[in-house]
Specification:
Blueprint lengths: L1 H15 L5 H9 L4 H27 L5 H8 L3 H15 L1 H14 L4 H10 L4 H27 L4
Helix pairs in contact: 1-2, 1-3, 2-3, 2-8, 3-7, 3-8, 5-6, 6-7, 6-8
Amino acid sequence: MVETALAFAVATAAGLVPLINIELYLLGAVALLDDGALVAMAFAAAVGQTLGKVPYYYVGRGTLSTPWLRRRAATPGKWAERMERWRARAETRPAWGAGLLALSSFASVPPFMVVSVLAGVVRMHFGLFCAVTFATRFARFLLLVLAPAWAMSFLP
């Protein structure tokens, strides 16, 4: 129970601060816990990561504002042009935006923090953002915690 609460707390912090790595925390737990606790930790970590990315989503929507983002958006250049292209593509094709969010959430390519902001910029439905983020993060963390035990089952 304590491990699950800690996984939630670390995952929420990792969602907010990119320097904190929830994957390393979960891999450390793999050596100490059984599969049932690991599944609960993966679930809690997915919930924490989803909550940790919500502020980035709201920054993209303009509800939360940061001086750095305002300067970048006001400055013409590659970054502003690229964001505008992605916004146009995601607004005309909502499935493309959800697919990009799922890919980024599961594989972290492109960086998930950036895509979380982009989801807010294109006004992705908040429920869709949370559902896709939770589902793909849970799949990622479940794979991460169960893969070592699965691989060990093949060793003599």
